[in-house]
Design brief:
Elements lengths: L25 E8 L4 E8 L4 E7 L4 E2 L3 E4 L15 E5 L5 E7 L3 E10 L3 E10 L6 E8 L6 E7 L6 E8 L2 E2 L3 E2 L20 E4 L5 E4 L1
């Protein structure tokens, strides 16, 4: 982390660092900021586990790993870049996550973090896709209305497609097809390495997605 505010422009600006090691090889990591003094580092592992390492920005220390899910898919060999977990906090302090789960589905959960270093399940698990053969999820929360959108690669059809699904209040909308052309996929060195969708929602609620 940088020790001063403002835009960093030198390598030396990132002079703060701390490391934590997991007992399993890590496929992917994603960092979620709660708006206060915690950054939640989500990882999925070669053991098929999904974990959260809370990082305290006041003490600059990691808390004990919190287990979220197990039995998820794994990738053999050179697997880094195979996207498997994504998340974001909403304006009410709830953590929303989507992840590559068993039988190649995309699963959604939401949590509330309490002061005892524990995540309390708020909603889910909910299967987001319907046909399997899904991977590389990406989740975003709208700053306009707190709605949630999850996009992912679906290889249930040939050619593969980018699909998306949005949750408004307590209701999940129907699955939408984002891509009209073929989506690049490959099993070389992993599952569709680094080629999943990426998305943001602007202040007016418009979704912007690249893939």
């Amino acid at each position: 982390w940088t020790t001063n505010t403002g835009l960093p422009h030198l390598t030396s600006d990132f002079s703060g660092n701390v490391q934590v090691s997991d007992t399993e090889a890590i496929i992917q990591a994603d960092a979620l900021y709660d708006g206060g003094n915690l950054i939640h580092v989500l990882i999925n592992t070669q053991g098929g586990n999904l974990k959260d390492y809370p990082f305290n920005t006041t003490t600059n220390t990691f808390g004990t790993a919190l287990a979220l899910a197990s039995g998820n898919p794994t990738v053999a060999g050179n697997y880094l870049g195979s996207g498997g977990v994504t998340g974001m906090f909403d304006i009410n302090g709830k953590m929303h996550i989507a992840y590559w789960s068993s039988n190649n589905h995309i699963t959604y959960r939401s949590y509330v973090y309490d002061t005892n270093n524990a995540l309390v399940l708020n909603e889910g698990p909910t299967q987001i896709d319907t046909s399997g053969s899904s991977n590389h999820p990406h989740l975003v929360v709208s700053p306009l209305d707190n709605s949630i959108t999850i996009a992912w690669i679906s290889q249930a059809t040939n050619p593969a497609r980018i699909l998306a699904r949005t949750k408004n209040a307590a209701t999940w909308d129907t699955i939408e097809t984002v891509s009209t052309g073929a989506v690049w996929t490959s099993t070389n060195f992993g599952i569709n390495i680094d080629q999943g969708p990426n998305m943001v929602i602007d202040a007016t609620g418009i979704r912007h997605l690249v893939y």
